[in-house]
Design a protein that fits this description.
globular, 24 strands, binds 2-acetamido-2-deoxy-beta-D-glucopyranose
């Protein structure tokens, strides 16, 4: 059915997998100096751990993560090949070379980009490498279908400000909108929109228009939701709990209804995934078809600290809008041994699989999950610590806090990705 453009994914194992160290709000602590970068999934490492998703709050220091490539407006309306997309094992931060980085299995089909989710896999994740500090992103796509199958089109910052469009395959006429501030859990931010016709059979255009003052979700050109910053004020913390830091556009397809997900997530996802469904028989995987994607960057906010034109960095652990600085710092690591602390320190020959550093260098192979590779190796499904109500993160058993997170996070891409990773790591 689809042209196989990238199915020959090698069985890669990232660097020397010593015991992973967890970090982040549910992790043990900040990362140590020899594995200074706290990945999107809450684990410490070097190399790709320091690129997109690296959270400066929980890394060894604010400058452990590599600077974030500055926004670039682009449109993609013909996916004839995968040349603009780097596999996560190949990308070192040169956004001029590759507009996107991905994990999982992608295909092209008559000019469309197809995200796939083969049997028992974690699905696929595609992230735009140029961070957006306010802008409009537009996607014309067909979602996947069936219970437990989630298609997503979101903006996600490295400090987990998040603006979402999510689609649960059990209901093809509902588009779920949501947002998060710094990953803080909130039950009440989701709002549903109505899609005029079945989102699996038909292309629709979904847009997120993000300015310093408001976010508008558009569906086929019509505004279905507006969030004003002034509605998000928290008088206890004295701040606007409003997405306000440079974010990447992420397209993903992932198994919210996989058996290793928490109960709350599976329920939200519309129930357990059926890995023997019609799509699993033919073409043999769940899929979502992306036709047109466009990114329009807005000017930096007035009052922004502009000292250059190449990248964004954070100047304080509060990671609010006022702590973002635009600088000339490079964004590219020399190799998979390097970190933001010294981007040219390691051996020039180190690759994702031959890095000499003993720390891990590519975050647990997948994001929104990966394709078949996440299931390779006999250890993936054995000895799982995953309970029906909690995440297991990075191989370490979680405390009760994780179960709470799982329930509360529900539809947060971030949280669910952590769970997907657990499938891979264990
Ligand atoms: C940016 O570059 C300056 C000058 O080279 C350096 O001192 C600083 O640590 C860099 N900042 C980050 C966050 O990498
Ligand atoms: C990044 O990629 C661009 C485009 O391929 C290339 O011209 C440039 O030299 C690369 N930069 C580095 C530092 O490798
Ligand atoms: C989809 O969800 C909407 C809103 O919650 C609901 O009105 C509709 O009945 C649902 N459709 C199906 C097929 O479940
Ligand atoms: C949105 O619709 C889904 C059904 O598609 C339903 O399960 C969910 O509770 C709704 N969410 C909100 C916030 O109304
Ligand atoms: C919030 O901002 C919007 C748009 O600027 C404005 O129309 C509205 O009155 C404001 N609401 C409050 C509560 O200040
Ligand atoms: C405001 O922030 C406090 C402290 O983080 C939190 O407990 C509270 O739930 C927040 N209030 C709202 C309305 O989100
Ligand atoms: C998917 O894998 C499971 C075993 O893990 C198997 O029972 C099922 O038949 C497979 N589905 C298809 C469509 O091959
Ligand atoms: C996608 O973009 C192309 C070229 O800009 C345009 O002709 C086409 O109508 C768009 N397709 C959809 C489904 O929006
Ligand atoms: C940051 O947000 C505050 C409101 O919380 C606003 O007054 C200020 O201008 C913003 N600064 C930047 C650089 O966006
Ligand atoms: C970006 O900054 C560099 C160094 O200050 C300067 O040489 C260059 O002209 C600037 N580029 C643009 C597009 O402004
Ligand atoms: C980075 O590491 C290299 C190799 O060890 C060293 O020569 C260089 O001085 C270091 N750079 C900085 C800024 O520490």
């Amino acid at each position: 059915m689809f042209r196989l453009a990238a199915l020959a994914v090698a069985a890669l194992s990232a660097s020397v997998a010593s015991a992973t160290i967890s970090c982040g709000s549910t992790g043990d602590s900040n990362c140590p100096s020899d594995a200074p970068c706290c990945s999107q999934y809450g684990e410490c490492g070097v190399g790709a751990y320091c690129l997109g998703g690296c959270d400066p709050r929980y890394s060894f220091s604010l400058d452990s993560c590599t600077p974030e490539p500055i926004c670039e407006s682009k449109s993609f309306d013909s996916w004839d090949n995968l040349d603009s997309l780097a596999k996560n094992y190949d990308y070192l931060g040169n956004a001029s070379d590759y507009d996107w980085v991905y994990s999982g299995t992608l295909l092209t089909d008559n000019g469309d980009l197809v995200l796939t989710m083969p049997n028992n896999s974690g699905g696929a994740l595609v992230s735009y490498n140029h961070y957006i500090w306010y802008g409009k992103v537009s996607g014309t796509f067909k979602t996947s279908r069936d219970a437990g199958v989630i298609t997503a089109f979101i903006l996600l910052s490295d400090v987990k400000d998040e603006i979402d469009y999510e689609f649960v395959g059990a209901n093809l006429t509902t588009a779920q909108t949501n947002y998060y501030f710094q990953g803080i859990l909130d039950y009440d931010n989701a709002v549903n929109g109505t899609i005029s016709s079945d989102s699996f059979e038909n292309f629709h255009t979904y847009e997120l228009d993000w300015t310093p003052d408001s976010i508008t979700w558009y569906l086929d050109g019509e505004s279905i939701r507006v969030l004003n910053r002034n509605e998000t004020y928290n008088s206890t913390t004295n701040q606007y709990e409003y997405p306000q830091t440079p974010a990447r556009l992420e397209l993903s397809l992932w198994p919210g209804g996989a058996s290793n997900q928490g109960e709350g997530t599976i329920t939200w996802a519309g129930g357990p995934i059926n890995w023997d469904s019609q799509d699993m028989q033919d073409p043999g995987y769940y899929y979502a078809i992306f036709r047109n994607i466009s990114i329009t960057c807005y000017d930096p906010p007035s009052g922004a600290n502009i000292q250059g034109n190449n990248s964004y960095i954070y100047t304080s652990y509060t990671v609010t809008n006022n702590t973002v600085e635009i600088v000339n710092n490079a964004t590219i690591l020399n190799n998979f041994d390097d970190t933001g602390l010294n981007m040219t320190a390691g051996s020039s020959t180190a690759t994702a699989t031959s890095a000499t550093n003993t720390a891990v260098s590519v975050p647990s192979s997948n994001g929104g999950g990966s394709g078949a590779e996440s299931n390779q190796g006999s250890s993936t499904s054995s000895g799982s610590h995953v309970s029906s109500t909690g995440f297991s993160q990075g191989g370490s058993t979680q405390t009760g806090a994780a179960a709470v997170n799982e329930h509360v996070f529900q539809s947060s891409i971030f949280a669910v990705l952590v769970a997907v990773i657990a499938l891979v790591v264990l």
